[in-house]
Design goal:
The protein has 112 residues and is mainly alpha-helical. Helix content is 63%, strand content 6%. It has 5 helices and 3 strands. The protein has a 3-stranded antiparallel β-sheet. The chain is globular, with a radius of gyration of 18 Å. 14% of the residues are buried. Keywords: DNA-binding.
Length: 112
């Protein structure tokens, strides 16, 4: 691919945008499990618990985004501390809802 060709430059720019996209499903299940130091079975359990909904490749394989990897890492942290999986999932959902509410409140609060 030559950066001198306009179509090639657009393709490179598009690829770079994907690397910055928190929601781009860039990681296979095996790579995600390796990065998290867990098993593919643990990731499947998060999918079954409805905490994560990984996208699927054309071949049907799960693909995870960086955002989903952070969620899975938090779940692993809670489970490693002895929290049951279902409770860990609920805690993470509530933490996420709280963070979103705080973000929205900050947008509406006038600066002092």
């Amino acid at each position: 691919m030559s950066p001198d060709h306009p179509d090639d430059t657009a393709a490179l720019s598009s690829a770079a945008d994907k690397f910055d996209d928190e929601d781009y499903p860039a990681y296979t299940m095996g790579r995600a499990a390796e990065m998290l130091g867990t098993t593919p079975g643990f990731l499947r359990s998060l999918d079954e618990a409805k905490l994560l909904a990984p996208q699927r490749s054309a071949g049907g394989h799960r693909r995870y985004s960086r955002y989903q990897l952070r969620i899975a890492a938090r779940a692993r942290e809670l489970v490693d501390e002895g929290t049951p999986l279902q409770a860990a999932c609920r805690i993470i959902i509530l933490e996420d809802q709280l963070a979103e509410a705080q973000r929205l409140n900050a947008q509406h609060d006038p600066p002092h």
